[in-house]
């Protein structure tokens, strides 16, 4: 999806581009977050005095297929495979609990065993495949970030260090590893070439195989104003109405769907080859489609209203922070998350408001957040400095964070959750 810039009255103006799925000319904006840095480009001390790249984070919506999509700003190689990718899935206890439950459920549901083959796309650090491996079911991961894949390999999980698409799928099939189960958690949004990606899944899936994909639900993004989930790595934002069309175009039928609470509200889709009779299509498919239609996700006007909600949330968070600092309060943040970097940079929040951020991942500690340059420290720092407020940037994990950091209540500390708008929890 190429961008073309024109010079009009001395300013750069973007010419309309085409939908990454249906190639329709896009003319409608969903949200414009201005110029932001790459959300996972954490900085070392030596890099603080160097210039940073900032990119326009502008999200549009296709009037034909209703796919919400980010304009291309950087190559997938730069974002995911330079050897320094910083997201490791295994540092969230609630996420590990979620995927463990999934592995137990799907093994029983599909009657998977030692003769089955499981393929996970974007297998990260082996956070999920380890649970299938414990059951002695053959697994294979595909992960483009070599430094992250290495952690999985150290657990004994085989990984192909490549991006997934038709060519990678052909390599896997040539090795005799066509899959009974193809799965992907929070990867579909990260794919710039959706058609190549979904075509690859069809190619690698056995004739009787099943695929499952989990991704944040656009309905929840709009309903709960989750604009901070918009950032450079997320090329697309999916409703079920849109994703069903994408898979159907490539001969894959979505036969079931579940609404799940992860990441602020996600959906898990189940797919099969179009010409396969079983499993039959669940009633939940039509129920969710009707729910989306009632919410207006088949009406372009619904999408055009979202930008104002984003601005209002920004204003309310800044009012809270300004008043807290004027009252002499100390504020720290929890979670050096990508969504947090979107929020902080869009709102212009730096060390004038936030003293530091803590994170459990040792891969981030000692570094600085991109753009805002807020230092990343160990969670132990909270108990040393005893801030008045702890701003939870990964708000989708607020219950887990509040439990971990419950001790702050001993000195009267309070939690702040920024989305859908700033709320204080004692």
TrEMBL record:
Domain Methyltransferase putative zinc binding, first and last residues per copy: 19-80
Domain of life the protein comes from: Bacteria
Residues that span the membrane, as ranges: none
All copies of domain C-methyltransferase, residue ranges: 261-420
InterPro entries linked to this entry: Methyltransf_Zn-bd_dom_put (IPR013630), Methyltransf_Zn-bd_dom_put_sf (IPR038576), MeTrfase_14 (IPR013691), SAM-dependent_MTases_sf (IPR029063), Thiol_S-MT (IPR052356)
Gene Ontology molecular function terms on file: methyltransferase activity
Pfam families hit by this protein: Methyltransf_13, Methyltransf_14, Methyltransf_23
Any one of the GO BP annotations: methylation
Record keywords: Methyltransferase, Transferase
PANTHER family documented for this protein: METHYLTRANSFERASE LIKE 7A, METHYLTRANSFERASE LIKE 7B
Protein name: Class I SAM-dependent methyltransferase
């Amino acid at each position: 999806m190429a961008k073309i810039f024109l010079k009009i009255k001395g300013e750069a103006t973007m010419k309309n581009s085409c939908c990454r799925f249906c190639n329709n000319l896009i003319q409608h904006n969903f949200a414009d977050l201005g110029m932001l840095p790459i959300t996972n480009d954490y900085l070392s001390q030596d890099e603080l005095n160097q210039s940073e790249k900032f990119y326009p984070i502008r999200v549009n919506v296709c009037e034909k297929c209703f796919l919400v999509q980010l304009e291309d700003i950087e190559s997938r190689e730069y974002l995911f495979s330079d050897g320094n990718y910083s997201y490791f899935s295994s540092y969230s206890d609630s996420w590990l609990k979620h995927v463990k439950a999934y592995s137990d459920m799907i093994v029983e549901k599909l009657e998977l065993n030692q003769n089955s083959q499981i393929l996970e796309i974007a297998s990260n650090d082996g956070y999920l495949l380890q649970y299938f491996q414990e059951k002695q079911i053959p697994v294979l991961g595909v992960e483009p970030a070599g430094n992250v894949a290495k952690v999985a390999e150290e657990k004994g999980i085989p990984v192909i260090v490549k991006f997934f698409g038709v060519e990678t799928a052909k390599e896997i099939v040539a090795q005799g590893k066509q899959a009974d189960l193809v799965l992907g958690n929070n990867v579909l949004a990260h794919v710039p070439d959706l058609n190549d990606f979904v075509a690859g899944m069809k190619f690698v899936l056995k004739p009787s195989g099943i695929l499952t994909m989990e991704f944040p639900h656009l309905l929840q993004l709009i309903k709960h104003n989750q604009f901070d989930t918009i950032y450079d790595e997320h090329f697309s934002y999916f409703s079920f109405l849109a994703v069903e069309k994408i898979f159907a175009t490539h001969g894959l039928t979505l036969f079931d769907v579940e609404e799940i609470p992860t990441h602020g509200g996600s959906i898990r889709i189940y797919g099969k080859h179009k010409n396969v009779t079983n499993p039959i299509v669940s009633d939940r498919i039509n129920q969710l489609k009707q729910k989306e239609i009632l919410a207006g996700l088949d009406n372009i006007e619904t999408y055009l209203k979202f930008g104002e909600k984003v601005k209002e949330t920004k204003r309310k968070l800044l009012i809270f922070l300004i008043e807290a600092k004027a009252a002499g309060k100390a504020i720290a943040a929890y979670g050096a998350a990508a969504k947090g970097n979107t929020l902080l940079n869009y709102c212009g929040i730096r060390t004038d408001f936030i003293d530091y951020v803590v994170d459990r991942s040792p891969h981030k500690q000692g570094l600085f957040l991109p753009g805002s340059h807020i230092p990343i420290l160990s969670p132990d720092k909270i108990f040393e400095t005893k801030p008045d407020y702890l701003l939870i940037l990964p708000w989708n994990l607020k219950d887990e964070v509040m439990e971990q950091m419950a001790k702050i209540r001993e000195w009267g500390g309070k939690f702040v959750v920024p989305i859908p708008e700033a709320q204080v929890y004692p």
